[in-house]
Specification:
The protein is mostly helical. The protein starts with 16 loop residues before the first helix and ends in a 9-residue tail after the last helix. 61% of the residues lie in helices and 6% in strands. The chain is globular. 12% of the residues are buried. It has two domains: 103 residues, Winged helix-like DNA-binding domain superfamily/Winged helix DNA-binding domain (Arc Repressor Mutant, subunit A); 38 residues. The longest helix has 26 residues.
């Protein structure tokens, strides 16, 4: 039985980790989107480009799973990125049915120009935190993410990192 950090008789949504994470994410997203608009990119496009760059997802199916996005919408987004020469699709040699995504030079250049914007917004949002507090927050959120992935895997019957190997 897990520790009871929350109890129904004292629960308030504003104190909920879910509420705090979602509200923080929404406010961060709004600030980043506002700054990205000036640079001709959407946050969703940036997220996809970063996932491809970092190897978190290399196919449309990977992106759909990782970002919880439907395949039709993701295909349209990839089409937009491809028409802007930011990504390219290539069939793999081992299985011609599989199409992998990679960044083009223009995609890499766009990311290089956007990453400082994201860093600025994150740094603004963490103003007043010490470096040690930021590392602690990252560590705690990482542990929470691992726990949630393990819970999801145990309820689905697949290993927690099966889709990351």
């Amino acid at each position: 039985m897990p520790k009871q950090h929350y109890r129904p008789d004292t629960f308030h949504s504003r104190d909920s980790i879910g509420y705090l994470l979602k509200r923080s994410q929404r406010l961060l997203q709004e600030r980043i989107e506002m700054r990205f608009a000036e640079q001709g990119c959407t946050l969703q496009q940036w997220v996809v480009l970063m996932h491809v760059r970092d190897g978190l997802a290399i196919t449309v199916a990977d992106l759909c799973r990782e970002l919880r996005h439907d395949s039709g919408a993701m295909t349209r987004l990839i089409d937009q990125l491809e028409s802007r020469d930011l990504v390219e699709r290539r069939r793999t040699q081992s299985d011609r049915r599989v199409i992998e995504l990679s960044l083009t030079k223009a995609g890499e250049k766009l990311l290089d120009s956007l990453i400082p914007t994201v860093c600025d917004v994150l740094n603004e949002s963490l103003d007043g935190f010490t470096r040690e507090e930021v590392k602690t927050l990252q560590s705690m959120l990482g542990r929470m993410l691992t726990q949630l992935e393990n819970l999801a895997a145990s309820s689905s019957g697949t290993p927690a990192n099966a889709d990351k190997e």
